[in-house]
Write the structure tokens for this entry.
Amino acid sequence: MRDVAGAATSTGPRVLPRNDPRQYDDLAGEWWRPDGAFAMLHWLAEARAALVPPATRPDALLVDLGCGAGLLAPHLAGKGYRHVGVDLTRSALVQAAGHGVTVVQADVTAVPLATGCADVVSAGELLEHVPDWRQAVAEACRLLRPGGLLVLDTLNDTALARLLAVRIAERLPTVPRGIHDPRLFVDARALVAECARHGVRLRLRGIRPEVGGLVRWLVRRARAAGSPGVVPAGRAPRIVPTRSTAVLYQGRGVRSG
């Protein structure tokens, strides 16, 4: 049987509230499956890493808040950063460490790292899971050195986002059921204002999976579903910019001196 998060259990369904962190333990085996429950997080990690320039100094540090199993790591290879990942879920951190990430188990609203330590802070698909997203933003900005870069992506607090990201996406194999609580979605204008309060001028753009690529991926995955153990062949969908920030949006900002 399956629980709210979509993970099989041996003792019957485990009913968890939306956005319950225990879902990530139930889904621990899905992180690195290209056709798994977290497939879209791989696509978003690649798009987020594209915002990160090569390091400009030795020992440059990138702090990855809500790092999960370290999906950002392959896309940072060769850029010259020491990659530190912060997350609450130990089962995910074990996998991140196996991909070269220095892991820290901690709440992103109280990160045990020094102020100004980071050249880059990444907060990918994180803020919409944090009950106090403003405090998470404060921590992200605190960690940045002057001139440091903040990159993020999250879901907007709109009716359209709730429709597409919850009601529709949770019926597709791209988003685990129950993984989001739409009450935590983050208003884009409020996020820009909060970052400005902490010295980061954040610029936003809307993003989405490329439609043709997504359709082809869904078809390949449906065909592979009838052949257990077969990984669908073909390129993963690209994340592309869009004019509207009404659903999923990406941010990039530099901390002032």
Summary: The mean pLDDT is 92. The beta strands are 61-65, 82-87, 102-105, 118-124, 144-155, 200-209, 239-242, 248-255. DSSP finds eight helices and eight strands in the chain.
